Amino acid sequence: MQKFDRYRLYYILMNVSLAAIISGIGSELLYNIGIEHHLDGPIGALAFFLVGLFSVLLPIFLIVARFMRDQYAEEIWKKTAKHFMYVIALIPLFIQIQGWILFGWIKRLDNSTYQYFYHHPIFLPIQWILSTDSFELFMRVWVYSICFFVILFQWHRWRDSR
Amino acid sequence: MKNKLKVLRAMNNWTQADLAVRLEVSRQAVNAIETGKFDPALPLAFRIARLFGMPIEDIFDDGFVPREAPARET
Predict the structure, then answer these.
(1) ipTM of the complex
(2) Whole-angstrom Cα distance, residue A80 to residue A77?
């Protein structure tokens, strides 16, 4: 395969990955509001497999496949990695601050106030962490991180193309 | 960085894809260089210069104007 074919393929695969991620997220959001896809049996299993393959395994390959990136794709990758690290650094801090506010301060107020804020959507991140089994939490954070990298990469690419 | 890549490409009747093939980069890279969103590293800049048979500084303009050194006392 010639170099420029490899470079072109990289962008095509990123597009495929983004499409799979959007399908997966869209499907989950619709399910959460009560709309099911009704893809049962072998077709449903195949669709689930393909979405999983292209939204998680493919991006992992694209993240490490330096040989498929030309200089420009490498620049976008570095920009993406830089902003990705900002998020990795800040989100846990944000959740920690939520914990301090909710359990260090609000909990000391009256019980009804605490209960109100504990179930408030603004504290959703920490609620979710505390209510999720640690292995499931680890897997979900891993998968969401991979998907987020692809979304961020494509966003940088789109911004440059304007 | 400003550059004359688009003009030079047009003078040769090349599409971005044609130029990308000659430079062994992606079409997106060519587009990003032309629009000034991406500055090529030296190896790619040299390839561009050799392809068009011109010095690098005639293709790319970074806008740098060297200051005059202060006069030395003799």
Answers:
(1) 0.73
(2) 5
